[in-house]
Structures
1.
Amino acid sequence: MTGSSAPTPSAPAKSEGGLRAWLTGRSGGRARRRWVDYAFIVAFVVLLVITATVSDVFFTQRNLSNLGRQAVTNGLLSLGMLVVILTGGIDLSVGSVVALAAVMVSGLSKEGMALPLAILVCLVIGIAAGAGNGFFIARYKLQPFIVTLASMITIRGLVFVYSDIPITPEDPAFRAVLGGGFIGPFPISALIMLACYPIVWFFLNRMKSGRAITAIGGNEEAVRLAGISVTRHIFLAYMISGLFAAMAGVMLASRLGIAQPSVGGGFELDAIAAVVIGGGILGGGGGGAFGTLAGVAALGMIDNLLNLFNVQSYYQQIFKGVIILVAVLARRKQQ
Amino acid sequence: MLVMRGIHKGFDGTQALRGVDFSAERGEVHAIVGENGAGKSTLVKILAGAILRDAGEILLDAVAADARTPLAAHRLGIRAVYQEFSLVSHLTVAENILLGQMPSSRLPGCVDWGKAYRRADEILQSIGFVGIDVRKVVRQMSVSHQQMVEIAKAVAVRPRILILDEPSAVLSQEELDRLFALVRLLRQQGTLILYISHRLDEVFEIADRITVLKDGQLVGTVRPQEADQGQLIRMMVGRSLGEIFPSRQPSLDEVALEVKNLGRAGSFSDVSFSLHRGEVLGMSGLVGSGRTQVARCIFGAEPFDTGEVHLEGKPIHPRSPRQAVRQGIALVTEDRKRDGLVMHCTIRDNVSMASYDKLSRWGVINRRTQATQVQQKVHELDIRPPLLDRLARQLSGGNQQKLVLAKWLMTQGKILILDEPTRGVDVATKVEIYQLISDLAAGGIGILLISSELPEILGLSDRALVMREGRIVGEFKRAEASEENLLAAAAGVKQ
């Protein structure tokens, strides 16, 4: 611009941010580094070291693959939840969608539908459930909490209408390959879940829809006035959440080898917890794929460790609750 | 009675008040006038404890009156009615008036509703506001009635000082008469009334003394008998344009945007104008005169009810900002924090946000093209620091404003609408933005410049429109426009 002091001609476009920014998906300017930025990672490493010294079971291939398989459901749900939370919303219906997908994939395959087709149908149903949420939230500007609460209840009802007794999927390959299969030492289900993370990262950071979704949570009106359809992107976010919830349901059925119509209650809360521990901010304005993965891993590890130490599950809950609170408290100042 | 001495207040690097010495007496109606941004609201908000001053002292009856919160001000007997309402919209009139002092019934913890309604009604009667149903929910009332309730709420506690900030903006003539009757009554009872208004005829009718603020300083205090409106206007604007505006050649190019009889119920009506390529068309008028709504309608951010918009001769009807952006229209909104920037996103994201379509293929953003183009704009506008991954919220106000401008320059539109493009930025950045506007116009873009700062309109525009109460009430060629006649048209004063 003329009339101003001449800017340096080759101003460098350096990328700042570092590990924390990468984890939380916030390419974050030269924010002052504080201990709390790394506290989470430090705590994680400390936890691992303690575990390694105290327990000789934790670092066995068997235990780690168990840990990986158990984290699949929450890992997938959290990804969808992350996308929704980035828009400033929330999706309480994912637990019910898990049950719907689990029961239907088992039921359909039992009725003789080819397994790939049954899985596909379930994923489409998941997307449709998300589309339903998105429609009311984006089109009629209803509160996400209320809309997804309503669909959580409605879908749970549908699950029981479909089947009020547990269904065992017939296809042996379902359980053997998807649920219990290994590639080398790695469980297939965990690999599928992990593969979704870079995909979502790419979507959120490299695609225009992903950038729009990230921005909407910060300032919806600014995004709208920039000529981006907010309605469309909120709609998309809930469909993505529905898709991942259905995937989680299919994977869960394949691991357990049985689909209970009551399964999935409270799963939404674990997913929200993972996103928040991983740097997500309810109401939008923060969160990233790899941070969320760290949150999923942390929650999974806590469960796993406390199991190894034979801690009663009630105490596990207390412990988890405290961890969530501490994680959010530690990030308080950053917001 | 009231003495304010050496009051200073700065916001984000701009000085809103620079050493104001103000005093007023018991039983006086003291008007405070000045242009937008002169510091009127800031001054009374400091008195009312709504914002904290940086320096200076306040004495009330020769005693230091240091109200650091609105509650503390209430205890000192200072009540304020602002332009923004503070009513709880889903409660009744009675509850709002008696908020915090609802009468209890014999049953502990319960409200004696009959008594509450009677008391609220008495209060309204005693100040001459008849015809307001105290059982009605505030949300269901007209804006003018809400304003009356707001005033009643403040008066109900018999304050020593009553601040009225633009109370007349939403009132009808009849309601205004009632308000004036109330003001005179309160004056008689010894209340000091500080009255802020843009409407000079109103000020002359009601005020005992008039204080003029300009650029955060007190210009002078006059009695209405001693001055006329013209004199007051000169006190309000009297400053030289200086050398801050670039020289401009008026454009004689073809029409780029034509607006015919545009109207939106409740906001504006019958707005017609044409904007030429390479022209800067100024639009002034008071806040609330409908300028922003006109801009938003052209941009598709709000629907319009009547009229037509033609872009380069072809009729367009943008139903969303998305469509307007595609047609080549850009809007820099008046409040960058509210709807201009995503603060937690980076410079890179904010600048390229409106251009994602051009920067991506199959929905994937071309990072290299994006970086190059954003870097170029950052360089052109001298945004500092020039780091693409810096978050918007970490930048200074001036740089944030440049970020918004960069976003729209990147779309390479044909029409650029600027709504208060220099609000809250320092003088150096203002000068840069003025030069940029001039350069853009020279490059063939049609620019609609909405501003409350008259020097800005006069210094940059080839033509200037004036809006008042939702209509265009004046059009001035560059040679004919002056601060006096623009302000007179905006305030509805006949010359």
2.
Amino acid sequence: MGAVFALPSREVREKALLIEDLVMPARASRERALDVAGETAQSLVARRQAWYQDIEDAVLDLSNVLPQGPEDYDARKLFQFLIELRRAMASDPDDRRGEVEVATARLRDVGSRIARRIDHERLDDPQAAVAWVFEAMTGVSARDTGRLLGVSEKTISAWRGGGVVERNIPRVVLVAQLLTYLRASMTPRGLMMWFDAPRPQLGDRTPMELLNEPAAAQEPLVSLARGIRAQLGS
Amino acid sequence: MPSWEAEPGRLTGRWTAYRQVAPDWAPLYHAAGEPYPTQTSGRWHRSGEGYAQYLSLDSSGAWAELIRFEAIRGDARAAEYRRRLWALSVLEHNIADLATYEAYQACGLDPRTAIGDHATSQNLADDLRSAGFRGVLSPSTALPGAVNLTLFGERFEKVLQTGIDRWLNPQPDLLLPATLVVEGNPPADLITETTFVGQLHYGYEDWAASREHGGSRAD
């Protein structure tokens, strides 16, 4: 985990997101479309080949900057799904069997997972974590942000001004990690309400109450926050 | 030995189903190439033991799942959520018909399994998968009267602007056409209709009472 953080994580993340972008459904469909008006058969083949080549180059680029290079677990998965994509495109150009669709989705999954991994590792740094919290909680008062991080309004003001985070580091890092799961599903005000709402999964305690013991809170709060990403049967 | 006395009915058909997810999350749960499955546990699967696609046969059922899971008790909190509600066309076979409490009873299963603790349902899911079922229809715990469709295993979405029921699906076992219905927050009206953890499930209670009184309550 630490090894990745020592690398230029922004570069790794951008390369992972490039793969994700190349295989996003709209782009993937457009790039391999077979019925573009006015397009010759030759340009069609060239366009599809260029798209595949871009993906292959992006996968190679990313694998070169991952800590274990092509031996990285996710890099190996990318190569595996890249081969699946190439074979599907060759054997079924108009994707009647849907295999190109599935291969691109699999590549997208791995690219997203690498980007998320980099995000989480970056947030182990308390300065990055507090900056992320401030960004996610835009518009929330210093009083509430202080309550969330367990520090005074004065400390929040100092941190906002670039002060070094030396207090409550485990709590700051945990809150930042939780926000990576929650942020897309609610407004900053809603995020504050999430931390203040009693939850049956926590024995009717609030996430805020658990934050006083960050080490013990890590597992139940991360599990709760991850659960919001997609519908579960209750 | 499966937990039932009589095997549940096996359904083949096409269903339109709904599912709500975070706006930055795919309509269906897939995590290709994960070293081990990390989907959070739900009623019909345990984390680490594969994937399940949790769907509802109506949109209210999907929203009620969010309201119950998140314990959203007031309008103000509901208004702060941002979710995507997707409609999906499911073309499936070997779906276990446990859509009603009667169906549970007919199989020799305790109807409270549908709304009780997850461990019992997860054990039943093991039996269903072993018997070759690909999913299950079961009453919703979150919204009395609603029915949930859960598909076992990984699925991928084919996002379409329209026509999910007309798309010729080349791999219905793996691909599901999906279309975005809305990006928004759960309807506040639904909060009073949702069964929260620890509350009596009036759908089940009414059914059980009607059995006790020989059906007179339903008349």
